[in-house]
Amino acid sequence: MKLANLAGRAVLVTGDGAADIARDSDGRFGPDPLAVLERWAEFREWARSAPLAPRSFDEALLGPPVPRPRQIFAIALNYRAHAAESGFEIPAEASVFTKFASSLTGPAGDIALVDGNVDWEAELVVVIGREARAVREQDAWDHVAGLTNGQDISERTRQLAGPVPQFSLAKSHPGFSPIGPWVVTPDELENPDDLEIACAINGEEVQKSRTSDLIFPVPVLIAQLSEVLTLYPGDLIFTGTPAGVGLGSHPQRYLAAGDVLTTRTEGLGRMTHRLVAPRG
């Protein structure tokens, strides 16, 4: 299944269009995408044989498929080559920070730059579909609703300033956390642990890897996070970015007004954003 947010309403995307979940369930499930995720097991059972009536739709109306997550986690240095280009040793444990929900945006449109050095980071994003607390690695995928594309856009000057890095603030400007275009359930993917992920700027590929290269793969991240805290339906985990970011380039390179940023992951579709001048 592909769950999306079309103009604020939860839809299932099929080969024939988008089926409005509230309409096609006769109100059993409401229009809020997050509310659907909070009843994910019930919803999946209904959707297996639901009489859907998909209609054509304008992809420009797609918003973030999870518009109001309670928690957004992100993982630093989770690909070996990215750790190396950043000048760090391979971490022994996952390095976790948070992003703020006000930075979420949809899979297409304009993103305003801010003063400083704005960088790209293509990421696989995990969407939690079932409350998770002290979950074992072998059970972790049972708590995943699906996967989607993400960008952990980062302003490096603020991120690296001061005695303590400001990861969360530097990565949470408006629009700096695009996700989408939809949440794809793991059963739609041949191997959800091994997907090609890539990023391009103005058509030039700058990142390309496979999620099988994650130092801490999805089950490990869910187990480690849920050992400390509770994961809730709709929570997001940005799993880390592969090598090829601007900070690690020689010479360093950053996003500029007019750049078109394309992000794709195998089986999950793609996102396209245009960077625009800082807002006055």
TrEMBL record:
Q: Which Pfam families match?
A: FAA_hydrolase (PF01557)
Annotated GO MF terms: isomerase activity; metal ion binding
Which keywords accompany this UniProt record?
Metal-binding
Q: Which residues form the Fumarylacetoacetase-like C-terminal domain?
A: 72-275
Its BP terms in the Gene Ontology are:
carboxylic acid metabolic process
The family annotation for this protein states: Belongs to the FAH family.
Which named protein is this?
2-keto-4-pentenoate hydratase/2-oxohepta-3-ene-1,7-dioic acid hydratase (Catechol pathway)
